[in-house]
Amino acid sequence: MAKRTLFRGTALPLALVAPQILITILFFVWPAVQALKQSMLIEDAFGFGSEFVWFENFEAVLADPGYRHAFGVTAVFSTGVMLLSLTGGLLLAALIDGVTDKRTGSLYRAMAVAPYAIAPAVAGALWFFIFNPTVGIGAHWLDLVGIDWNHVRNGDQALLLVVLASAWKQIAYNFVFFLAGLQSIPRSLLEAAAIDGAGPRRRFVSIVLPLLSPTAFFLVVVNLAYAFFDTFPVIHAVTQGGPGVATETLVYKVFKDGFIGLDLGRSAAQSVILMVLVAGMTVIQFRYVERRVHY
Questions:
Q1: Which of 31, 211, 214, 252 is 20 to 30 A off residue 237, Cα-Cα?
Q2: How many Cβ atoms sit within 10 Å of the Cβ of residue 289?
Q3: Least confident stretch, 32-41, 191-200, 226-235
Q4: What does the mean pLDDT of the chain come to?
Q5: Which DSSP state fits 118?
């Protein structure tokens, strides 16, 4: 029987939730309000003056071909990162979950989780040096098999490189949750299916995947946010949005227009559009995709 805790009065409950409320206000609500306010202003780059222009910044952003190009790059980039990181995490978890020796399994788990401890900028720098067209060992190996690798001047190769680097960084995070989900599945279900004649592939598709659907749904939401926002350090370390604008995603364009171009109003408008876009996609996932999740 579950034990319930009753508070006498409201002072203690409010005190317990106050830190979280304060953090939410300081690091989400207040910046969001400031971004919305700034998106309706045309400001001097040095802060000497501003003009209220209503939605002109949004109209200019949506009419900008460069922004539409960044939108397309973001769609390809985020889809690739999400699919590769989820697939890689699930495959790695399934392989390590099948290791019967405890010491070997512990070693494999530690090795699989290790990349998540690396800072995104460091991970980007690592992949940059590995595939550097001049001194990179990865570029040298590709050259040996006849692939001319130079992501500095080839936009498709640059986009592929940042997708791989970002996905590699996130695989460890997905691995932890998928492994926990796999280990929570009752072995009796798998043994009963094996007795009934179901092979490993059939057991995985018909039993394991449906039972992992809550974990997979959670990771889809998290990985989507990661691909849109947290991959900025990787892109900045590897390509800086180049060559040209080949790897310029929406979040990188916000940085480029705001901190390099000093167009603060349009940069703020882009951040508001990005925030609404991600929030809308999250709502759609909870509204329609969650229906297919088996809890």
A1: 31
A2: 14
A3: 191-200
A4: 88
A5: S
The neighbour count for residue 93, using CB atoms within 10 Å, is: 25
DSSP count for the chain of H helices, then E strands = 14, 2
Chain-centre distance for alpha carbon 7: 39
- ∠ CA 260-266-268, nearest 5°, is 90
Contact criterion met (CB below 8 Å) for 42 and 53: yes
CA distances from 80 to 45, 95, 120, 127, 132 (A): 36, 22, 17, 17, 22
The tens digit of pLDDT for each residue in 81-105 reads 999 999 999 999 988 888 878 888 8
Q: Tell the residue number behind the tokens 């996130």, with chain if given.
A: 170
User: pTM for the complete prediction?
Assistant: 0.87
pLDDT in the model for residue 3: 66
Q: Which two tokens stand for residue 269?
A: 């408008």
Confirm if 206 and 200 have CB atoms less than 8 A apart: no
- In sequence order, what are the residues at sequence separation of 6 or more whose Cβ sits closer than 8 angstroms to the Cβ of residue 236? 121, 124, 252, 255
State how far the Cα of 207 lies from the Cα of 204, in Å rounded to an integer.
Answer: 6
Q: What is the rounded distance in angstroms from the CA atom of residue 280 to the CA atom of residue 282?
A: 5
Segment 270-286 shows an average pLDDT of 87
- CA angle at residue 285 from 280 to 290, to 5 degrees? 150
Distance CA 79, CA 253 (A): 18
Distance of CA 282 to the CA centre of its chain: 13
Segment 171-188 mean pLDDT? 90
Q: To 5 degrees, how large is the angle CA 93–CA 99–CA 101?
A: 140
Portion of the chain with pLDDT greater than 90, in percent:
43
Q: What angle is formed at CA 279 by the lines to CA 31 and CA 84, rounded to 5 degrees? A: 110
